[in-house]
Amino acid sequence: MFEVQGGVTLVLTIVLFAVKGFALVDCVARRASQFELLDTLPKRTWLLLLGLAVVAHVIWLYPLSILNLLGTVAALVYLAQVRGSISR
Asked: Is the pTM of this model over 0.90?
């Protein structure tokens, strides 16, 4: 039972870290003017939020800690709002 729970936690940790890392790399690669066109948060704010999310994930590996959950929400909002809108 605990082996399954540990395996699920490990997979969840890796997947959520990959999502946050992908969002951060995507944010770094975009021009600041693209953020202004979307009428969203500035690029620096997104970089700060996503960077803190990645750092928090490295410090607290447990994926269901409050800071990791907040970081995951920030990364998913970025991917849906910014990347999703620019890709269209």
From this structure: no
